[in-house]
From TrEMBL:
The lineage of its organism: Eukaryota, Metazoa, Chordata, Craniata, Vertebrata. Binds STK38 and STK38L. One of its GO terms (cellular component) is nucleus. Its main location: cytoplasm. Residues 246-256 have a biased composition (Gly residues). This is MOB kinase activator 2. It comes from Pleurodeles waltl. The keyword Cytoplasm applies. It holds the Pfam family Mob1_phocein. Keywords: Cytoplasm, Metal-binding, Nucleus, Zinc. Residues 237-265 are annotated as: Disordered. The keyword Ribonucleoprotein does not apply.
């Protein structure tokens, strides 16, 4: 039996820098949203994507079969599984970002860019907030932190129910955490390699993307920006049908997310 999910507040990553944020700009967590928009400028000829070099893509912290790791275990409630994984991914991505955060500054990353795409933060009134990448990441992390520690949204006490908005909030969280991971690859991969943490980053990304796919948490259009990487990293991680197919049922792992769709609300 599962014990109670640990309170994520106790998992706050100490290494994550606390940046001064204009509090007036911090959006209410329940309404936060952002949009990606091409920045209109001529695309800068893209630098060669270092993170696609085989030398780096083959680096993982573990060769675990992620497909098995993301599948909803029998007897575990779907929401409970989503909640526990959301909290874990949040902590890991926060930690991974903290390793390069000293290089992600208002000077180096004036906008939240992933390649030629820019993300903008929108406050609770739908007002576009111009922000640097570190500010955007702060918005994401503080909003998610607030949500995952809200007992009404991520209940940890026995018998307490998940709210109706739970799944849609989880989807939002995954979408924003994806932006953070994509930014690390696109703007800070060199530093990650210098720290010899690209194996961890690749592993985290693979696990994260397969989890997203398994439960249909993020629109594929949103993640398309990193499809080249996803293809390389995830193609060897589980899409290759679970050959030994223990419980005999799905002979084609290709249908992938078919079973555990999270319904759109
Ligand atoms: Zn940055």
């Amino acid at each position: 039996m599962l014990g109670p999910r640990p309170q994520s507040s106790s998992h706050t990553v100490p290494a994550a820098p606390v940046r001064p944020v204009d509090l007036a700009c911090v959006p209410m967590p329940l309404n936060w949203k952002s949009k990606a928009k091409p920045n209109g400028k001529k695309p800068v000829p893209e630098e060669k994507k270092l993170y696609l070099e085989p030398e780096y893509t083959k680096s993982r912290a573990t060769d675990f079969e992620f497909k098995e790791l993301v599948t909803l275990p029998r007897e575990i409630d779907l929401n409970e599984w989503l909640a526990s994984n959301t909290t874990t991914f949040f902590n890991h991505i926060n930690l991974q970002y903290s390793t390069i955060s000293e290089f992600c500054t208002a000077d180096t990353c004036q906008t939240m860019a992933v390649g030629s795409t820019q993300y903008y933060w929108y406050d609770e009134r739908g007002k576009k907030i111009k922000c640097t990448a570190p500010q955007y990441v702060d918005f994401v992390m503080s909003s998610v932190q607030k949500l995952v520690t809200d007992e009404d949204i991520f209940p940890t006490k026995y018998g307490k129910e998940f709210p109706n908005s739970f799944e849609s909030l989880v989807k939002k969280i995954f979408r924003y955490l994806f932006h953070v991971l994509a930014h690390i690859y696109s703007a800070h991969f060199k530093e990650t390699v210098a720290l010899e943490l690209h194996g961890h980053l690749n592993t985290l990304y693979t696990h994260f993307l397969l989890f997203i796919r398994e439960f249909n948490l993020v629109d594929p259009k949103e993640t398309a920006i990193m499809d080249d990487l996803t293809e390389v990293l995830c193609s060897n991680s589980g899409n290759s049908s679970s050959a030994s197919g223990s419980s005999g049922g799905t002979e084609n792992g290709g249908g992938a997310a078919a079973q555990n769709h999270v319904k759109e609300r």
